[in-house]
Amino acid sequence: MKAKLSFHLSFKLSWQMLRRDFRAGELRLLALALLIAVASLTSVNFFTDRLSRALAQEAHQLLGGDLLLIADHPWEDDYRREAEKRGLRISESISFPSMTAYGEGSQSTSQLAEIKAVRPGYPLRGTLRSAPTLNAPDAATQATPARGTVWLDERLTAALGVKTGDTLKLGSTHLTVGAVLTQEPDRGMNFFNIAPRLMMDIDDLPATQLLQAGSRATWRLHFAGEPGDIAGYQKWAEARIKRGERLEDINNARPEVKNALERAEKFLRLAALLSVVLAAVAVGLAARRFMQRHLDGCAVMRCLGASEGQIVRIFLGEFLIFGVLVSLMGCLAGFVAQLALQALLSTLLTTPLPPPTWRPFAHGLGLGLALIAGFALPPLMRLRNVPTIRVLRREWVGAEPLAWSSYAAGALVLAGLMLWMADDVVLGLWVLGLFAVAVGIYALVARLALAAASRLRTSGVMGGMNGAGWRYGLASLVRRRGSSMVQAVALGLGITALLLLTLARDDLLASWQRSLPPDAPNRFVFNIQPEQREPLRAFFAARAIAEPKLLPMIRGRLVAVNGRAVTAADYAEERAQRLVEREFNLSWMSEIPSGNSVSAGRWFDDAATNPAQLSVEQGIADTLHLKLGDSLVYEIAGQRMEAKITSLRKLEWDSMRVNFFVIATPALLAPYPTSFITSFHLPAMPLAQENQFVNELVAAYPNITLIDVAAVLRQFKTMMDQLAQAVEFVFAFSLLAGLAVLYAALESTHDERAYELAVLRTLGARDRQLRAALITEFAALGVVAGLVGGFGATLISSLIGRFVFHLPYALSWQALPIGIAGGLLGVTLAGLLGTRRTLRAPALQSLRALA
Q1: Kind of pairing, strands 197-201 and 109-118?
Q2: Which of 253-267, 468-482, 656-670 has the lowest mean pLDDT?
Q3: Of the candidates 2, 110, 281, 703, which lies 20 to 30 Å from 424 by C-alpha distance?
């Protein structure tokens, strides 16, 4: 009974203290920092949780069946016969990009589209939806396009300006528009569906004559059936999968979607991570100030008979209630914020998201309580050791010196939170390591600055009328060495975050824009047949457009290196595995192409006597661990070709020219089936003339594929802008956390500074001397924080530009002077504004308030 009464009394006292402290403003900064941290994490967790669950719910529809076989060549009939033997349902589809055209002559319009040829019965899982006309209500359908007809999605219908019943040209044939395609199940939530879609019957495909040598087509077999039959067939197929073939089930469906989501999620998690790191610093500073302001109250409680255990229980209860309430508010704010994320990405998400689960709430509550336990409770636990003598004398061993040990628990908690939030051990360790290095360097610079301030104070340089004020300002920093270092580090971290969110981001975008020359090619044409080369040159000459340089392209697969067969299992890096599995675009030429430079070896000097030579791009060679002298074997159209690497090349990928990973001598590859590819710059002209040129080109050569790189880049930029807006939205939490750190750092020593100013005024110090002391103290803190913040932001943005975005990023030092100036002015003004009431108040009033 006594224990229950004690618990009830402690809880009641904790609740009363919480209400009193919050009304007095003691917990508002702590609440703000905690709210920012929880809201930033839960907003990302809510969104990614709903997104991943939506992807899981539609896994079968993303496949168009229960199992999917994908290849860059037609599938052998054995796979169909085995599926029929096991009682599985089968469907087939072929996808490739091509040009579509509507109209005749100067009135025609053309558009690049993703062609999808299907057999009746597609899809095996999910539902097709179509509408009779554009913007009309759609309905589910079990049918597919009939022979001689095509279904266009809404984007392609609008782009071509067609309606149901119109005839459009596809390759060498004409097909009738039968309906508007509004939904296909295996398109799903693909961030990279840039081209609009056209669906047709697979038996109409031969008449188009679009599948030529070098065509980029994908053959898919869809299967559906009982789980046991599917599992058995999957095991049978896995044992027979060859190069260029892969199998997908509901566990690995749509890897491009998965990879896109993972990349977006990493950006969002990094943004939330920065918010939590900065918020943790603010929580630690605010908790330390709370502890210092409650020393006298704890001493009075000890005089009235309160035991150490009772004091601990009261404060533990207060902060437990506080942590739960603020964390729940943060979870609610995060839920509202993820609705904004969903709105920002609405055009990229074609599938409704399911409602959230309880897990993001649990994660947010856990984060809030972990920050309280790591950064607030360790300083508060020291309150139990407050001696009763403090009521008479403001003394307490360990009260003034900074207890660095109290932050050890917080550092461990923060490290665990960073690894947990990153959801990737490697990523978490990198962020943790960089954060630790930044804190260490900032602390070292702050320590050196304090040592310099100590020597400057005694050097006699600060002479004159106000010399005493300046010297006292420096003395205050040196005397509170530990607190000053914490303030400098915290302010430096806040300024670093603010600079990264403003200047560094703009520099990276400017570097990206400068990487594209104004006359860079803006159109690519491929699938050009050998007999079309001369007519195509004449076509360009007749229209006074620079003659494009046609380059041969041969599709081949790397099968062996130095006589040893290579497979994806030979490489640990994911990119290397993909490269080994796919077909390469090979080319042959006698002269080194523009924008290429030999980085090792020699170009084809003796090609006449030694035709079996290859030149390999440096990056692909590093990825696949290739070197000069290696012998490579490629399989081309069922034949094998072998040659040695005699040179490595560096390429200007940003030039937008046609580039090749592997180039051979003409004598080596000329005998193989070849198509041609080119890129050209279409000068700026009225839209009607531009459309006329493109339409005439497609009409004259219906088999070619023309890609408007400018349009693709515009669409891609629109998509990336939306993703960037989502990331910047989460970075807004980081911005708020950075401002909270700046405020918390200045407030952490407010009471000590106010008490000292009151004592000095009592001893006769003038206002201008006190103001000079404050200006010196705040200006010194601001300069040190701005210096480390500007330097840190400069180096971090440079590393990101070079090693993450791979941009020709020129190291810009503008963040350094801006950081120093901003730190000097911002910290000084904020500090003076925060102490203006103290300067105006009578000394006796300040002493009574702080005594």
Answers
A1: parallel
A2: 253-267
A3: 281
